[in-house]
Amino acid sequence: MSFRHSIALHLLTVIFGFYFLVAVIVTVVQLYKEYENTKESFYQEIQLLPTTFGQGISDSVWTYNQELLQSILRGVYNSPIVVGIEVKSLDHKMDYKIGSILDKDSHPAYFDTDGKPGKSAETGLGADALFGYTFPITYQGPAFKDPQPLGEVTIYSNERLVFERVKYGFFLILINSVIKTLALWFIIFYFIKRYLGNPLNEFTRKIKQQDSNQPHPITLDIPWSDNNEILLLKDSYNQMILSVNEYQAALKTLNKELDDKVRERTHELFAAKEAAEMLAYTDVLTDVKTRRAFFELAEQELKNAVRQQTAASIIMIDIDHFKNINDTYGHATGDLVLQTFAKTLKNSCRACDLIGRLGGEEFAILLPQTDLNGALHVAEKLRLSVADSKLTHNRQTLHFTASFGVAETAPGQYMLEEILLQADQALYTAKNQGRNQAVAYKQSTTENT
Ligand SMILES: Nc1nc2c(ncn2[C@@H]2O[C@H](COP(=O)(O)OP(=O)(O)OP(=O)(O)O)[C@@H](O)[C@H]2O)c(=O)[nH]1
């Protein structure tokens, strides 16, 4: 923290701003008082002069002795606190003025030691600010019972002489004030810095050094032990840090739990997605491919056949008189027949053959790398297997057969719908020819095996 921005300097600027104002006012009052006291003592000193010179002045006025009066007045004028004297006799014959006096209009006027108008010897601050003491002069002779009034004498002094005398005192007061102010400034600055500035600096430095991920409570090297505001601030900060750490720890635990939950949920969703895909691709009853899956996968297989320039065949299969089975033994038994039938197909086919249930009791098998003869051979084998299969229901043995229509891809003809249609036409022929047989598709005619 730079000195210019320190709290100590800011506080001192405010404190000493006010202190300076108060100090100036107090010093001015003090100086004014000193000035007044000095002026008062001047006045008292002037009042003492008549006891020394009063008799001589009275005598010289009574005897009209101008020389004597002048020499007495010059003697008074030489006094360091006198700047002027005016003698006013009642008959005006012995009027006399020396130095600076106030005329009848209270304006300063100047006279030399011979009583002639001249220039003021007094210059500087308050030289024209005259103040005087007037006392009567009387004659007390043996011929008179009461003192005879002769006139009055005014002795003048001025403010400049008062200032001259208090100047030294002023100077001392000023020096005293400056030294006291400076000493006080340094003392207060030192203690504010020691008890306030330094602890706050240390506090700030330690907060800045904190690890924001895991802040720790801090300690402060404070030169007092009572619970002052800085210690309370530090305690509150430490309390806050403890709470923050607790919250962070709780948050970490929550985050971990949340992570675990999200991972678990993602796993479940993934499994559910796989299950849903399986469901969409696998027929629930017979465990062979669904119609949609069969078409998608068969398209892929046909594309492969095109790329590899190999043959591929399709067998369309339909269980014979399945409606009768349903009607005779019930729908549940019909389902069992479908399952047994599908199982038979699976057992008799290669792993690469694609078996799908296209709907109801209608199935299709795609045989990769198999020409029409091969497919017809497979169909025949399947037909025999189906015819051999049996199902026991209510202690009755149930037999069923199926009809097969076979078609193969023609060179350059790999349209799935087209081949399916051809296989379906062959199947239709097989049905028409009495069922339980496999028929291959021929362009215009169909051939019975
Ligand atoms: N149990 C059962 N029956 C089904 C299912 N799907 C379709 N069926 C029935 O299968 C029967 C098909 O009958 P048809 O299309 O007349 O054919 P068919 O009786 O086999 O006669 P042909 O094909 O001419 O030999 C209908 O009665 C459908 O209700 C199924 O998932 N389970």
From TrEMBL:
GO terms for molecular function: diguanylate cyclase activity. The chain crosses the membrane at residues 7-32, 168-192. Its cofactor is Mg(2+). Residues 237-264 form a coiled coil. InterPro entries: Diguanylate_Cyclase (IPR050469), GGDEF_dom (IPR000160), Nucleotide_cyclase (IPR029787), Rev_trsase/Diguanyl_cyclase (IPR043128). Pfam families: GGDEF (PF00990). It catalyses: 2 GTP = 3',3'-c-di-GMP + 2 diphosphate. Residues 310-443 form the GGDEF domain. The keyword Cell membrane does not apply. SMART domains: GGDEF. It is an enzyme of class 2 (transferase). One of its GO terms (biological process) is negative regulation of bacterial-type flagellum-dependent cell motility. Keywords: Coiled coil, Membrane, Transmembrane, Transmembrane helix. One of its GO terms (cellular component) is plasma membrane. Its EC number is 2.7.7.65. NCBIfam families: GGDEF. This is diguanylate cyclase. It comes from Thiomicrorhabdus xiamenensis.
